[in-house]
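User: I've been trying to design a sequence by hand for this structure and keep getting stuck. Would you show me what you'd pick, starting by listing the structure so we're on the same page?

Assistant: Good idea, let's start from the same input. This is the structure you sent:
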């Protein structure tokens, strides 16, 4: 049995007002990244003060075994919004 689980996600917290992202971070999957993002929404941060201005974006994948990273370019995806997304169901 292999220890490999495939790629981990590479994420940024996108600021719609500044039109820029935070330093990137990696997480095992979208659910773990959402948990980290929601922690920043609940903490005393600029994200918490203006949650409607922020979204979590998955911008690529990284394979931890060989550290190869592949960016999505313009095909990134929104994983979570600072304000709770009614369609999210969580």
């Amino acid at each position: 049995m292999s220890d490999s689980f495939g790629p981990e996600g590479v994420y940024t917290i996108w600021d719609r007002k500044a039109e820029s992202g935070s330093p990137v971070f990696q997480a095992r999957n979208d659910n773990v990244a959402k948990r980290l993002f929601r922690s920043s929404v609940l903490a005393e941060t600029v994200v918490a003060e203006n949650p409607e201005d922020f979204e979590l974006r998955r911008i690529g994948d990284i394979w931890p075994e060989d550290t190869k990273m592949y960016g999505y370019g313009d095909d990134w995806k929104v994983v979570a919004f600072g304000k709770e997304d009614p369609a999210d169901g969580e």
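That's my pick for every position. To get oriented when you compare it with your attempt: The chain has one domain: 8-81. The radius of gyration is 14 Å.
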